[in-house]
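Lest this sound abstract, we think one record worth quoting, the chain in one-letter code, the fold tokenised, each line plainly labelled:

>
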Amino acid sequence: MSGEGITQELKHEVDDLHNRYVQCIDDDDLESWPDFFTEKCLYRVIPRENEEVGLPAAVMWGDSKGMLQDRVVALRNANIYQVQWYRHIISNPCIQLVSDGVIKAQSNYAVFKTCNDGESTVYNVGKYVDLIVRDNGLLKFQERSVIFDTHKITTLMVIPI
């Protein structure tokens, strides 16, 4: 782990990126969600078991900002799923490395889901593993791996984590 280049200002910027990211999802502002990523990016939601043994199969995957935008269009216009709202609880990101303009960070998350019946349940729990870069002065995700510990996903996963 290298502490070189890890300033309080950078920690604050990374923390702000994470907070704005989950707020965007929790507020159902999904059309803005792809803006948190670089044009060429990787977003994947993958079970912990697959990640640990090197299996690439993910339940959600996109390798460009355009694919993420298509995902939002599909969930708004084509997918049929029960009305649900998310509420994220995230840990402060731990910056593990800063090298050649790339920030490697990790944080934990828990997502609660509330359906139209008003019942809230724990939906998904895991960690974010991120590669973050500065794009036109703003921090953005170049890669975001959502590695979930949850063994059972109770409903179709259509909303990003």
